[in-house]
Design brief:
Hypothetical protein af1432, two-stranded parallel sheet, Hydrophobic Seed Protein, binds magnesium ion, binds adenosine-5'-triphosphate, elongated, Beta Polymerase, domain 2, alpha+beta, 7-stranded mixed sheet
Length: 451
Amino acid sequence: MNKRIDIPAALRDFARVFASAGYSCYFVGGAVRDRLLGLPVNDWDVATDARPEDVQRLFRSVIPTGIQHGTVTVRWKGLSVETTTFRVDGQYLDGRRPEAVKFTADLVEDLSRRDFTINGMAADPASGEIIDPHGGLDDLSAGLVRAIGDPAIRFSEDGLRPLRAIRFAARFGFSIDEATFAAIPATIARFRMVSAERVRDELTKILLSARPAEAIGMLDESGLLPEILPELSACKGARQGGPHLFDVFGHLLASCAAVPADTVLRLAALLHDTGKPSRRIELPDGSITFYGHDEESARLAEAALKRLKYPNAVVSEVAVLIRHHMFDYSESWTDAAVRRFVARVGFEHLRPLALLRLADSSGMGHGPADPRSVLPLLGRVDDLRSKDQAFGICDLAVGGEDLAGIGWPRGPSMGRALAELLEAVLDDPELNTKERLLDIASRIKSKHVHE
Ligand code: ATP
Ligand code: MG
C-alpha cells in the first residue's frame, strides 16, 4: 500500500496558512483512508494544534460547528474543511506553546482516540506522507476493520463503534478483525445507551452501502440486530412456501439488496414482510398463507422507524409502500384498473412501489426479476396522464363549491359524494365534465334524500 497520498493543491494551500502562522496541521481520518483506497474524497478533516479561536483569526469564513469539541468548519476555495484541535494538555492551556516534538505526540494521541486503524492515519500536508502509528496501512491492504487498542474498552467508551465497524465493512467489502468482532456481544449494554438518532444515521449508511444484506447478517451474528430491529430478527426461521427459497428473514435481506440505494426503498424492502411471522397460517394441505401481512408489516415498520427517529416523511412513505406492495400487475389490467390503482396508492408512490415489487420478486431466490413484469405499468400511467385523465378528487371537473351550488350540504357527506364521483370517473373518464358530474351529483343527492 502507498505510503503517501496526493493532496489537492487547494488543500495544500489551506495547510500552508497554518504553517506560516506557526501551527501544525494534518489531514486525518476518512479522507486519508478513502484517498489511499483511490476513492473520491469530499470531506477533508484536519487536526491541528491551533485552537478554534486561532483558526477563526486565520480564515475569513469559519463556522463554529462543534466548538465545544474544538471543531470549526472553514470555508476555503469552495471546500468545507472540518478543523479540530488536538486534545490539548495542561501545559498548552497555560498558553505556552508546546515544542515541536509535542506536536507529534499530540497527533499520535489524536489518532489513538479514533475508532479503527483504517480511520487512524494522518497525512502530512506538504509531502502527503502517511503517519500510521496503528498499522492502518496494513489493515487497509488486508481489508480489515480493526479497533485501535483493546476493542472491549473502545466499545465501552462509545457504544456506537460496533455499528460503525459493520458500516465500514459493508461499505468497503472488508472483514471485521476477529477480536474486534468478538468484543461486540459483551458491550451491548453500552450500545443501548446510544441515542436513536446516532443509530439511525449509521443504519441508514449501512443500508445505502453496496452490501446491505451482508451487513444485516453481521448485525444478526453480533447480537445487535434485536437491539435495533427486533421485528426483523423475529423473521428468522419463518419458513414460507410456494416459490420462496428463503425464510422471511433471508427474503427481506435479499429484497433489500435488490432495490436501488435509496433510504426509503431500502427500508421498505427490508421491512416489507415483517408482519408475516404473526400472520402465518399453515393450512391442512400443508400450504402457508400470510393473510393481512401487508397491513401488519406496514404497522410494524411504522413503529420501528418512529422508534429510530426517522423523519415523518420517511416513516409515512415507507408505510405506504409496504401497505401496497402486494399487487400483481399484468398487461391484462384494464385502463380503469390502472386508474383505480393510481387513485389508491398515489402518483408519487408508483415508481418506488414498482421497484419494491420487483425487488420482492428478485428476493425469492430465483435470480433477478424481469423488469418487464412491472415497469410497463409506469408507462401506461404516463400515457393516461398525458390524456389528462383524473386519478384523484382534485382532478375532478367539479369541487365542493359546485356541489354547494346545487344545494349539497357542506360536511362529510360532501367528501363522500366527491369520492363517489371519482369512482364513476375512474371507470369512465368521459364523465369528467362539470355538466355530467353535476348531473350525477344531483341523482346521488336525491338518492341520499330518499334514504
Ligand atoms: P465518512 O466517509 O462516512 O464520513 P469518516 O471516516 O469520515 O467516514 P466520520 O464519521 O465522518 O467518518 O468521522 C471522521 C473520523 O473521526 C473517522 O475517520 C474517525 O477517525 C473519527 N471518528 C468518528 N466517529 C468516531 C467514534 N465514534 N469514535 C472514534 N472515532 C471516531
Ligand atoms: Mg467524514
